Amino acid sequence: MTRLEIPAQRRKSGVPRWPKATFGADLGASLVVFLVAVPLCVGVAVASGVPAELGIVTGIVGGLLVGLLPGSTMQVSGPAAGLTVLVASAVDQHGLAALGVIVLGAGVLQILLGISRLGTWFRAISPSVVQGMLAGIGLVLILGQIYPVGGLAQPETTLAKFSGIPDLLVAMVTTPAGISGLALAALALLIMTFWKKAPQKVRLVPGALAAVVITSALAVLLALPVHKVEVGSLLAALNPPAFSAWGSLLDPAVLGSIVTFALIASAESLFSAAAVDRMHDGPKTQYNKELVAQGVGNTVCGVFGALPMTAVIVRSSANVQAGAKTKLSRVLHGGWLLLFVVLLPGVLSFIPTAVLAALLIQAGWKLLELRQVAVLVRENRSEAFVLILTAGMIVATDLLIGTLAGLAVAIVKTAIEVSRLSVKAEDGAEQVRVELGGNATFLRLPRLLDHLEKLPAGKHVHLDLTMVRHLDRACHQAVEHWAAQRRRSDGTVEVALPASVG
After folding, report:
1. Which residues form the SLC26A/SulP transporter domain (predicted)?
2. Cα–Cα distance, 418 to 80 (Å, whole number)
């Protein structure tokens, strides 16, 4: 184990002994990550339709618990914008009481996947499906969060969100709440966009935090008529599953939500790990251990009835860029979150929901990655089709159906691409020689039979399949059947099979 990880030597109490040389860097990075995490934890919770405190609880668990577990060094876990749509749908369908059961079940499933060493298999999912999934989530996130900007409640269905846009636009320019919310959201987006151009010392404060502080101060000073975040006691907000809630495990829809939460959260965490590993030179992520760590975190979040967690690329990249060296930075960030919500909970009640909506709109826009989509359209249209189909299906239906549709199309596309079959025919005076190459699978069977049935009658046919890399049972039987028919009619046939078959 290197100095960048927890030292192998431990005190008798079991508490890790952190390297003194890196303590200062980790302390500074933890403060930066904490400042990034506060508005995002609250914003994700509000957008998910649950109390804001539950987002903070998930951030605390992600720091203090998952931060200590093996798997990754630099990743920071907490509530993620990518799960907002899924959580809101689950709460709407099954109620807030069932959220803890679903999150706990997803955590246990993640632990089982990690113990079974299936973590590395998540890297085998088609990148176009993952990108389409994130783009679809981004579109749904944007479509939903434009309503709090205008001071209106978010419609429940996608169709209602589209059909309600005219009324939303009218509210934004005619009602005091709509005008104020639009102005604050626009200002927040401008601050976050241009903050990167500020002097380096100023940029030590995260742009998202600066946007929240400035716009919240303006809302208070000008007494703007906007809805603000409602924050209560952290302990009162905890939502442990009641005994009666466990009966929901018999509901197939709840079981489906558990599987969906586990798969989406795992995929997002492990894809984030791959991205974060490219940003630093320290120890790389151990995927199966990281999956177990995420599972443990979600299990505990489920016990508290809090939001599900994933490794979050925004917080993780901020951690790396702030100069973190060990896991201590992410553990400390969880401690700062706990101290903040215990000592200064009233500060959150000054934040307008329109500003939090602006933060999530920006997060949704980043998930779209339009530049990469444009590059993909130019360079690989079939992959771009999978991406667009996945995103479109997620917007039109839901996250699970859209992702499964994208995976199915990606599998079919790959099967077709790897089943390329070449057919070369040389027509002589008395003999026709046909040479096949590539992969002869059932997907290419119609094309193969078309070629064979067009061969001239009355000639000897030499069918050479020795260069075929893979000959499946369907093609093998079809070739034998065709050869038998030809021998019975008007000619002789000689078939040379691949060595693996013959």
Report:
1. 24-390
2. 36
Give the CA distances from residue 232 to residues 201, 235, 268, 349, in Å, rounded to whole numbers and listed in that order: 34, 9, 30, 9
Using alpha carbons, select from 235, 239, 236 the residue that is nearest to residue 338: 235
| Residue 457 DSSP class | T
Nearest to 363 by CA among 207, 138, 43: 138
Quick one: 408 and 424 in the same domain? Answer: no
- Residue 5 maps to a domain: no
H/E run at residue 107: helix 99-115
Q: Are residues 367 and 228 in the same domain?
A: yes
3-state secondary structure 115-143: HCCCHHHHHHCCHHHHHHHHHHHHHHHHH
Q: Are residues 340 and 429 in the same domain?
A: no
Do 116 and 135 lie in a common domain?
A: yes
| Most confident residue range from 203-212, 255-264, 400-409 | 255-264
Residues 425 and 406 in one domain: no
402 and 465: one domain?
no
| Three-state secondary structure string covering 268-307 | HHHHHHHHHHCCCCCCCCCHHHHHHHHHHHHHHHHHHCCC
Same domain as 112, residue 29: yes
Residue among 397, 86, 108, 90 nearest 248 (CA) = 90
Report, in angstroms and rounded to the nearest whole number, the Rg of the chain calculated over CA atoms.
28
For residue 363, tell me if it sits in a domain: yes
User: For the chain, how many structural domains are there in total?
Assistant: 2
Collapse the DSSP code of 94 into the 3-class scheme (helix H, G, I; strand E, B; otherwise coil) and give the result. Answer: helix
Please tell me whether residues 478 and 352 are part of one structural domain.
Answer: no
d(CA 98, CA 360): 25
- Per the structure, the complete domain to which residue 465 belongs is given by 420-496
> In 210-351, which ranges are E strands?
310-311
Please state, as a whole number, how many other Cβ atoms lie within 10 Å of the Cβ of residue 329: 30
Q: How confident is the model at residue 502 (pLDDT cuts 50, 70, 90)?
A: low
- Please answer whether residues 268 and 82 qualify as being in contact, where contact means their C-beta atoms are separated by less than 8 angstroms: yes
Residue 13 located in a structural domain: no
Shortest CA distance to 337 belongs to which of 34, 24, 3? 34
